[in-house]
Amino acid sequence: MNVIESNQLTKMYGKARGISNVSFSVKEGEIFGFIGPNGAGKSTTIRTLLALIYPTSGSATIFGKDCIKYAPEIKKEIGYLPSEVFYYENMKVIDLLKYSASFYKKDCTKRIHELAETLNLDVSKKINDLSLGNKKKVGIVQGLLHEPKLIILDEPTSGLDPLMQQKFFELLREENKKGATILFSSHILSEVQKLCDRVAIIKEGEIVKVETMSALTENSYKKFRLEAVNHVTSEVFQLDGVTDIMVKEKTVSFIYKGNMNAIIRKIAEIPLQNLWVEEPTLEEIFMHYYEKEE
Ligand SMILES: Nc1ncnc2c1ncn2[C@@H]1O[C@H](COP(=O)(O)OP(=O)(O)OP(=O)(O)O)[C@@H](O)[C@H]1O
Q1: CA of 107 to the centre of ligand 1 (A)
Q2: 13 CB less than 6 Å from ligand 1?
Q3: Atom 11 (ligand 1): residue with closest C-alpha?
Q4: Residue 268: CB within 6 Å of ligand 1?
Q5: Which of 193, 200, 278, 283 is most buried, taking the most CB atoms under 10 A from its CB?
């Protein structure tokens, strides 16, 4: 079953593009990454799914129900951590969390204290006195205290130190093992790689690619780097499957996907000093997608 299904979702801010024709689905039990540079449309997509803003056209379902029409009902089963959190500064953390819990029918007291302990959050403090990272932790506890079936996180790690990020990821993996589906938006590739099963890449408001993490990182792409005896030009490497060519005097690098024999034959035409064949970093793979349609 698909927990989220977005169908040609479009949001215009007046004449300005928010997102256009965004279609993707998140399966039950998945940790799904949503990745793209600043301004790509991640928050707009998430806010539309949560009915915090309304789509200009297109539609989406969550748990099989229209996300706008059934928003109040759907939201009871969602834990949401927005990219920026704002609180009543004078409140104590515990009072804020109890207030958040009061919107749900179950008793969340035990879970609040478990989560606070895992994240080293002192719930007796006033919001005012918390650092940025600790405020973020309040948001995390708030998002998870009712043990939601779907967790939606918009750039959740900003402000968390590396150790806390690790704890937070462990927490998310535990929730996922217990059955929660997770939508995780980020512009940090390495953290998406650590956590997610599948990823959608969004660029300038449009989904460029949806792919499993393993397919993206494992087999298909190779990075070639070679040092020729003489100067070379990029024309030599105009071959199907070659992208991201960079030439600097006698050195050439490019990303290749395709038949290995074809590229090796091409390289063999050039007198070489040295040759490296490497796994591209996730950055290089993603840059390739970002740039592809320009
Ligand atoms: N309230 C708004 N009014 C007008 N334009 C907006 C509004 N919110 C977002 N936009 C525009 O919509 C586009 C998508 O923005 P969005 O915040 O969804 O991107 P994002 O991928 O979440 O980026 P970031 O990581 O920087 O938050 C951007 O061009 C942005 O300027």
Answers
A1: 36
A2: yes
A3: 18
A4: no
A5: 200
**Ligand 1 atom closest to Cα of residue 47:** 18
Q: Which two tokens stand for residue 270?
A: 């050039």
Q: Is 41 in the pocket of ligand 1 (CB under 6 A)?
A: yes
Distance (angstroms) between ligand 1 centre and the Cα of 4 equals 21
Q: How many CA atoms lie within 13 A of 178 on its CB side?
A: 13
- Atom of ligand 1 minimally distant from the CA of 202: 21
Q: Compute the distance from residue 40 Cα to the ligand 1 centre, in Å.
A: 7
Average pLDDT over residues 136-143: 94
pLDDT in tens, 152-200: 999 998 888 989 999 999 999 999 999 999 999 988 877 888 899 999 9
**Pair 221, 288: CB distance under 8 Å:** yes
Q: Fold match between 2-215 and 222-278?
A: no
Give residue 294's pLDDT band: very low, low, confident or very high (50, 70, 90): very low
- Domain extents for the chain? 2-215, 222-278
pLDDT single digits (tens) 228-239: 999 988 888 888
In this structure, what token pair is assigned to residue 178?
């217990």
Residue nearest to atom 24 of ligand 1 (CA): 38
Output the CATH code of domain 222-278: 3.30.70.100
Cβ(24)–Cβ(208) under 8 Å?
no
Report how far residue 137's alpha carbon sits from residue 51's, in angstroms, rounded to the nearest whole number.
24
CATH homologous superfamily of 2-215: P-loop containing nucleotide triphosphate hydrolases (3.40.50.300)
| Atom 12, ligand 1: residue with shortest CA distance | 18
